[in-house]
Amino acid sequence: MTRASLDKQPHEVASMFDDVAERYDLTNDVLSLGQDRRWRKEVAKAVDARPAQKVLDLAAGTGTSSLPFARTGAYVVPCDFSQGMLRVGKRTNTWLPYTAGDATRLPFKDDVFDAVTISFGLRNVQDTDAALREMHRVTRPGGRIVICEFSHPTWTPFRTVYTEYLMRALPPVARAVSSNPDAYVYLAESIRAWPDQPALAERLKGAGWSKVAWRNLTGGVVALHRGFKES
Q1: β-sheet bridge partners, residue 23
Q2: Binding site annotation covers 218?
Q3: Coil, helix or strand for 49?
Q4: Are 53 and 75 in contact (CB under 8 A)?
Q5: 103 among the known binding-site residues?
Q6: Would you say the C-alpha torsion 153, 177, 83, 49 has a positive or negative sign?
């Protein structure tokens, strides 16, 4: 079994997700106490995909996150660098155009997509700023980015409880339901090390995005960041 380190070497992270692909969606549902479904609904609202629009769903994994966009009539491209995740997704949703790709070197032309979104994946990219610049490059002028990522709870007492859950409760639960529980130790550590909401907003601005704002979900356990590419 593979566990990535916090320097996030791409081959380590991809291999780690290959290992957990078969039960990934089930494990996320259990570990988030079902909240992941609510978070994904909020992502779909924020992206606001429309018929015939082109949507890039990065770190799409098995494609579960892509389905709400497809249901609107948008053309959605699920992209991930884990071949294992893509294989599992392809078995279920054969019609989706699954694409292998690294967020820091996207295999798409400039100004292609109306919207680019990434849920719970930016944290696992080795070079966050390069990924944000690449997402900006492939988005058309006037297009938008939506990032859903674990963040920092805003209420201090709850933040303490949440941190304890991540480091103490999450690994034993993962051992019960995941095919690679060590991967979830890495995921807990990567959540603790991730920038807070204002810091991520500044990185979006630094990559060229404008009108950057964020909204907290579940008390800041998760944050939705949104920005636009100037016309």
Answers
A1: none
A2: no
A3: coil
A4: yes
A5: yes
A6: negative
Contact 99, 129 (CB under 8 A): no
Residues 154/216, Cβ–Cβ less than 8 Å: yes
SS3 (DSSP) at 79: strand
Percentage of the chain beyond pLDDT 70 is 77
Distance (Å) of CA 220 to CA 11, 57, 141, 217, 225:
30, 23, 30, 5, 12
Instruction: Please provide the distance, in angstroms rounded to a whole number, between the alpha carbons at the two ends of the chain.
Output: 46
Tell whether 62 is in a known binding site. Answer: yes
Radius of gyration of the chain measured on its C-alpha atoms: 17
Tell me the one-letter amino acid at 21: A
Token pair of 60, please? 């799409």
H helices within the chain, ranges in order? 10-20, 24-31, 35-47, 67-71, 83-92, 128-138, 156-164, 170-177, 181-193, 197-206
Q: Is residue 7 annotated as involved in ligand binding?
A: no
Longest alpha-carbon distance in the chain? 49
Are the C-beta atoms of 180 and 159 separated by less than 8 Å?
A: no
Residue 119 is assigned to a ligand binding site: yes
CA distance 182 to 184: 5
Q: Hey, CA dihedral for 213, 125, 156, 223, is it positive or negative?
A: positive
pLDDT digits (tens, 9 = 90+) for 11-53: 665 565 555 555 555 445 545 556 778 888 999 999 999 999 9
